[in-house]
Amino acid sequence: MGKALENGSLHLPPDQFLPGTTQLAPCVILGDEAFPLKRYLMRPFPGSQVDDPANKQFNYRLDFARRIVENTFGILSQKFRIYNRRMQANPENADYIILATFVLHNFIKIYDGFSFTATDPPSSIVNSELQYIPLQGGNATEEAFQVRNVFKNYFLLPQSQLIN
């Protein structure tokens, strides 16, 4: 997947306008400090740059979004055990598996009265063996810094300035 992202063959959606603005931005993957900053992969500003309030706000928003994604997968893995292990699927098909479980989750929730109350992944997931993911090397490109700044500036906009 990393190679496909790097060479542009993963077929990500094209750049889109950020909601309420005329600013184009790419679709990105949310990462933490262990990942490199790439055009398609957002990571927080490092500790030495967090003194800037704008960078701190960006890190807060990125962390908040990452927690929502992690909680979502925690909820899905409680119901669908496929998320408790490594998926045996081609990267081209993985998005269909994820989409199918979202649809099934919503169907069950609506028609079977099933609901989740947990907001954190169960301890069995947190304590499970995680596959070692090596640190991705690489110096961030100027384009990657520009993309992060686009999102940083967007997060600083007051709601009243956004175009409807």
TrEMBL record:
- What keyword terms does UniProt attach to this protein? Metal-binding
For activity, the cofactor(s) needed are: a divalent metal cation
Q: Which InterPro entries match?
A: HARBI1_dom (IPR027806)
In this chain the DDE Tnp4 domain maps to: 28-106
- State any single GO MF term: metal ion binding
One Pfam family matching this protein? DDE_Tnp_4
The name on file for this protein is DDE Tnp4 domain-containing protein
Query: Which organism's genome codes for this protein?
Result: Acanthoscelides obtectus (Bean weevil)
